Amino acid sequence: VDLDTAKKELEEFIPHVRNISDSSIRKMAGRDLVRFKQFKKQGIAVKFGRFSQKENNQIRKNVEEFLLITGIDSAEKLLFTSRYPEDKETINRLKAEHLFCEKLSEGIPRPWRLIYYRARKMFDPNNYKGRYTKEEKEKLKKYHALHGNDWKKISEMMSRSNLSVAMKYSEIKSAINYGPWSKEETQKLMRAVEEVIRKRTEVEDVNSLSSSERSHRDLSIDREKLYQKLPWTEIEAKVGTRYWRQCKQKWTTILTNKMTKGQQLYRGTKGLQAKINLIKRLYEMKAEDANEVKWEELSNTIGDVPRAYVQAKFYKLKVSCVPFWQKKTFSEIIDYLFEEKLPELEEKL
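Structure for TTF1 factor, as requested:
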């Protein structure tokens, strides 16, 4: 079908389709339109958001059946073909011959692209590989010296995810202090945050205020700007003795103390109630991935706190309560907390 017809037909199933790029619409017209129409005949609506356990099982079944049909060794070879250059041509031929797109999406009323990303996330052995060894850290330094910030290339050489190698390099690239923060370090951090916020505010004000107004103006900003989208690598460089994640965590602690006037919001019965509220709200959101969660909306489950504080508490909750959490999907973690941990917390409260 032509592009305009494709947009019109897809709009019935995907209301926001006109915001999608033309190339993506063409792919969706080929991969999804016929499937969507078949699901409609069966009275099944197209879904978005969190994948259900049933859908996850269907993806596993589809992948396993495709491997049996084609004789491809593993799900990793099937879904991360570029990691196996010597087999790439053969695998791509088998995928084309046996209609990989159709087989992977069989029985799942969602856009093919979302099913493919979900499958890659489920079957990527590089997602959770534990702590870096001393040898791996040395390799990472060596590869960075050769390839700079080409994290995609380095991640392939290290068999780790892009984000993992980038974040680990940030930790090991300089002499870092891991002990308690000194008064001097804390002041450096506060000055660094103030500098970047002032700089950002001045850029925003260029078009709205005259130079004399800008020079005499006190810094007054929306509270959200104190913790949203701050340039942490720049702040890390200004502090000098801490890596960016430590800076972010310390700044969150400072802000939380200011915003709550030093109250202990996560202790005793208040802490139990906060954990219960957090688990319930996360379960109700039905998010498939942590990136889909609107953490700002969850702040009031604990109190008047920054989003990073809520994220940190959720991280501690899953690490301490969910066995083998590294091997579970985000939705599986939430389901476990809701089904297993929540009753225990409610009884304790």
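The chain has four domains: 3-123, 134-173, 183-205+221-260, 268-348.
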